[in-house]
Structure formats: C-alpha cells, structure tokens
Amino acid sequence: MPSNTLSDKLQQKLAERAAQGNLRVLKTTSGLVDFCSNDYLGLARSEKLRALIHKEEEKYIQLPLGATGSRLLSGNHPLFEELEGIIARYHHAEAALLFNSGYKANVGLLSALPQRGDTVFYDEASHASMKDGLRLSFAKSHAFRHNNVEDLRQKLERTTGQVYVLVESVYSMDGDQAPLRELAHVCNAYNAALIVDEAHAVGLYGEKGEGLVSALGLEQEVFARVLTYGKAMGLHGAAVVGPQVLRDFLINYSRAFIYTTGLPTHALVALKCAYTLLPDLNRERERAKRLAHKLYLKLNKLSGIRCTPEGSVILSVFLHQPQKLKELTAALQQKGFDVRPVLPPTVPQGTERLRVIVHAFNTEEEIEGLAQAIAQGT
Question: Which one of 29, 173, 205, 326 counts the least CB within 10 Å of its CB?
C-alpha cells in the first residue's frame, strides 16, 4: 500500500538520524536541578505570580475563556488592546501587536514585511523561526558572518533598494550579544531597517527588564523588535513592537496573525500580571548574572573544556573530546543536574556543546555541585 511505502520512507529518515546520534525524542524530568529551562527569573514557578493571576482573572470574568476566533473576526476584545498598550509603553515603542508565540511572531513579521525586490541580511546564527519566516517571503535573503559588522557593511555596499537587517540581541544557542550599537550605526548609514529578536533579553536587560535595545537606548534606531514571553517572562505568546504603521501593516498582511485564533483570556491576564512584577525583579536579574559568572569562572579553570561567553546566563560548554558529550550529559543527569546537549542540526557540525542555563533560583551550592560534576565527568 502507498501508506506503507511512505511509512517506510519516514522510518528510513528517522533511522538515518539515529545512526548519526541525533535522533530527537520527547522526555520528562522531575526532581533534577534545573540548568536547562529558559525560566531565567523563576516566574514560571512563581507563587506570587500565580496568586496575582488568579486574583486578576476575576476582573475579566465576563470574557470568554478562549478568543473564539481570529482577532479580525470574533476574537478581539478590550483586554487585547489594553495589554498591547501596556507592552508598547513598557518597551518605549509606539505600538505593539500580540502573536501566539515567538515562532509565530517571527514568521508573521518576516513573511509579510520584506517585499519582492527587497533584500534581507540576517546573522548566520539567527533563530530558525527567523529563517523560516524569510523562506515564506518574496524578498532575497543572505546570511552575514556572526556578529561581524564589517562583513555586513561590505554586503550593504553592494545592495540597492529597501534593505532589512535581522539579528538577535542575545543569541539563544551561544548566549552572546549582538553588537547593537555598531549594527544600528551601519544600518543608519545605509538606510537599512534593523529588526531585533529580543527573546532571550526581555526580562534580563534594561532598567526594568525591557530588553537589550532599551538598555542601550536604541529604541529609535531599531525599526521592529520581537518580544517572546516563554523565556524570562515564564509564560507564552509574543509581541512585535515598533511604529504604529507597522502594527497596521501586520494586521492587514501578516497571514500568521490574520489566520490564527487569538490568545486565550488566561494568557492575556497572565502577561499583564507578569508585566506588573517585572520592574521589581532587579535582584533576580543580578543574581542570575552573578551566579552565571561564577560558574563561567569555575568551568574555565578545568582542563578539557572551554566555556563561553562571559557575562551571559546562557553558557556553552565545549569539550575537547566532543564525542564524550552525551556520556557527560548522562552522568550529570544521574547526579541530579538537568542539563542538555545541543547537537546538529540545531548547531553546525563541530560546534556540539553542553548548554547550561543559570537562573535566579539556582543556589551557590548547586553552582558548586555542577562545576564539580562536570570536572569529574571530563
């Protein structure tokens, strides 16, 4: 039967990936020390946030549980507009538009905004959702070398027409920061629109956790920012912030927005509550960074490994013998530490690493214990 033939083909593809040692499977963990999740500030497990959400939901009891449809049909209600106003003001932008996830926001923005005849340059380390959005666009797109402003400049010199430049402010795999000031200067010089994905910066950087763009005072130099709420905000959903005309354009042309049911009421209330807590989390922001720096220093004293970057809560641990990565991961989990390897195709061949994320709720003892466990495992 044809279905059997197709099943055989799919099974063969899975077998190929298994033979490469890169087969992905879903699994759950419990009782392990979290050095894996993106819950940087601990908001996903915050009882204070949970209680605040429960109390705030009573104010919106008249709203349906679900949006009931696309926001252009039956799905819009005043809480959407209220929250988007809060988001825009908080991030010093003219307007905001909510999407159902960071992936949806990037796909929705980048498939709609760049037009046929336009050119997009994106950092080669950009998130898969950005690249997927560009695949749906009619614009030409080209990568530039990671964080290499001169490489970007040379490409811009040979380009005419409307140009966009895409970067992450904090890169999800490597944990390093984009040189945003230099990028903004180059984009200004060549009249290119700079778009910044702030998924791993929101909550951690800025006076009130507004993100790295705001921390550097570059709000007017960046055309659009993508804010993702599944990381430091501990929730779900995303927003694109920028000028009012961008919001109006996306409402009319972004298929990922137009043809998607809006977020449920609970998600909107939760985001509103998280934004009320975010300004007062400076202690958590500093603690996560301090603990990460401590781990960074400890790991770089060990032989057989290299830990990067300095100054980030996302650490990449590279082994001099990368073939031992899975063995080390299993040993660390056996000792009670939830850490995960990052393997191709998520990262390029030869850059396999242990990805360690440090949170505000981790303890000094856990940092010491993880460093010792890695030392014993290498």
Answer: 29
CA 7 remoteness from chain centre: 34
Give alpha helix (H) positions in 254-343.
255-258, 265-277, 282-299, 325-334
Q: What is the CATH number of domain 48-279?
A: 3.40.640.10
Per residue in 98-123, pLDDT (tens digit) is 999 999 999 999 999 999 999 999 99
pLDDT tens-digit readout, 196-210: 999 999 999 999 999
Helix, strand, coil share (%) of the chain residues, nearest 5: 45, 15, 40
Query: How is domain 24-41+281-377 classified at the CATH fold level?
Result: Aspartate Aminotransferase, domain 1 (3.90.1150)
List the domain boundaries for the chain.
24-41+281-377, 48-279
Cβ(109)–Cβ(250) under 8 Å? yes
The contacts of residue 70 (CB under 8 Å, 6+ apart) are 258, 259, 260, 261, 262
Task: Identify any residues that bridge with 164 across adjacent strands, giving them in sequence order.
Answer: 120, 193
Contact 139, 131 (CB under 8 A): no
> Element (H or E) spanning 134, and its range?
helix 128-135
